[in-house]
Write a structure and sequence with these properties.
Distance between the termini: 47 Å
InterPro entries: Epimerase_deHydtase, NAD(P)-bd_dom_sf
Radius of gyration: 18 Å
Number of helices: 8
Pfam family, one: Epimerase
Bound molecules: 1,4-dihydronicotinamide adenine dinucleotide, D-galactaro-1,5-lactone
GO molecular function, one term: oxidoreductase activity
CATH class: Alpha Beta
Family: Belongs to the NAD(P)-dependent epimerase/dehydratase family.
Order of helices and strands: EHEEHEHEHEEHEHEHH
Organism: Xanthobacter autotrophicus (strain ATCC BAA-1158 / Py2)
């Protein structure tokens, strides 16, 4: 059991979904976001914080023995927005962790680090990066930064390349990329309980029949995802036309993100 687990990005979609369940892993949960955090439970502490503010992030991390780092820009956006939250913000988090006893970190990386692979390719953690936009590039930076802090200082991080973590798959691609909230929570438990973590890449995906990613390199963590997106196939087929075989949604692992432009600064 952790003493104090920090959850960044607690006001976001994924943060809101897992927040009520984190008392499983820690006596106190410090929830943080730049946005309003809503009602605070008795086992929680709420801290409004902009990840690009180094001094505030140092205070945020102080006293925590684990961090689930979800905060940041989560889709393609202007470079200036991505830089503040995902580049400067990540550096601030790792410098704070270095100064505050090196709490273990779960970094929410993304499948958009490898989005330009085709959907008929199967990947393990050794596959070279193929980001599909500036957002994906920022997650590649995050993985590289975490790896450097591991090699140089022994800071442990789980680099979780999340596929699509939401209540249920909402398109055909997500039958391959979906991860259930329960499987993610089980993964969080394995990451913080492992006697030795290191700095592994972990594919954040449920046990979907049509998944593309191989987690055998991290079997030592004991994570066995239980959900399978296949149970939603009939519902999807009844409600959504299948994309054309040459559409980006059907061709690339990153789906539509491969088609995003470089957004202009204004
Ligand atoms: P989200 O966009 O709903 O939540 C992100 C949160 O970060 C927001 O509440 C936002 O206010 C906060 N944030 C943004 N900039 C900030 C800043 N400068 N300082 C402090 N907080 C800031 O995203 P979601 O879906 O909840 O994803 C959470 C994390 O997981 C993100 O890092 C995302 O990149 C990653 N991820 C999520 C996937 C998913 O399927 N939900 C898939 C792959 C990665
Ligand atoms: C992500 O990285 C995004 O944060 C999330 O909003 C989803 O779009 C997900 O990837 C996905 O690829 O489905």
């Amino acid at each position: 059991m952790l003493k104090r687990l920090l959850l960044t990005g607690a006001a976001g979609g994924l943060g809101r979904a897992i927040r009520p369940h984190l008392a499983r892993f820690a006596e106190t949960v410090r929830v943080s976001d730049i946005a309003d955090l809503g009602a605070v439970a008795p086992h929680e502490e709420a801290v409004r914080c902009d990840l690009s503010d180094a001094a505030a992030v140092r205070d945020l991390v102080a006293g925590c023995d684990g961090i689930v780092h979800l905060g940041g820009i989560s889709v393609e956006d202007k470079f200036s927005k991505i830089v503040g939250a995902n580049i400067v913000g990540l550096y601030n988090l790792y410098e704070a962790a270095r100064a505050e006893g090196q709490p273990r970190i779960l970094f929410a990386s993304s499948n958009h680090t490898i989005g330009f692979y085709r959907q008929d390719e199967h990947l393990d953690a050794a596959a070279p990066l193929r980001p599909d936009g500036l957002y994906g590039v920022s997650k590649c930076f995050g993985e590289a930064l975490a790896r450097m802090y591991f090699e140089k200082f022994g800071q442990e991080t789980a680099l979780v390349r999340i596929g699509s973590c939401m209540e249920k798959p909402t398109n055909y691609r997500m039958l391959s990329t979906w991860m259930s909230y329960e499987d993610f929570l089980a993964l969080i438990g394995c990451i913080f309980r492992a006697p030795r973590l290191g700095c592994p890449v972990i594919w954040g995906v449920s046990d979907n029949d049509t998944r593309w990613w191989d987690n055998s390199a991290v079997s030592y963590l004991g994570w066995r995802p239980r959900d399978n997106a296949e149970r939603f196939r009939a519902e999807l087929e009844a409600s959504l036309p299948r994309p054309a075989p040459d559409a980006p949604m059907a061709l690339y692992q990153g789906g539509q993100f491969t088609q995003d432009p470089i957004f202009e600064e204004k």
